Every structure is written in C-alpha cells, then in structure tokens.
Amino acid sequence: MKRLKITNDHGWTPRKLRKQERKIKDASLCVRVTAVRLVMEGFLGKDVAKMVHLCRQSVSLYVARFNEGGLDHLLDRRLPPGRVPFLTEEQQQESRQLV
C-alpha cells in the first residue's frame, strides 16, 4: 500500500495543526484536521482511518484537499443546493398565511 504524502507548501506543521484542532468547534471539521495531522506525523492512511473512525478513502481525500489548497481548502464545505421545492415562492407565502 502506498503511503500518503503531504506536500508542505502551505507551511503547516503538526504542532500548528494541533492548535488549530482545539479552536475548531465543528466535530467533523476537527476530524479532518486530525486525520491530516496524523498522516503528517507518519501514520499510514489505514491506521489513521481506524483512529478517527473514517474510511481510508476519506482520509486520502482529506489529504489530497489539504495538498491542493492548505487548511482553507480542507475546511471548505461545499454543500449541494438541495432539492428544488415543489411549491413556488408565491405558493409558499400563501401556505404560510393560511397556517
């Protein structure tokens, strides 16, 4: 199995990442930073996945995102826009008034 590699183009060290982990309130984002830090410290991806209760593929995805754009890119959560509502905006307003 190939070892995951972190490009250190962004100037982050394991110590700085640990400090950042403590500041993050959202648990899922904290897990991302923890996974990257553990890989940076030399753990294998499969071992990191077991430690933080993720699948190995998620760990490699987080490392790839960190390598692309640093911590900002890792913590960016692009959520899909969601399903298109069945009711138009006018119909929603009307139903609110009725209720």
TrEMBL record:
Pfam families: HTH_29 (PF13551). It comes from the Bacteria. This is Transposase. It comes from Anoxybacillus ayderensis.
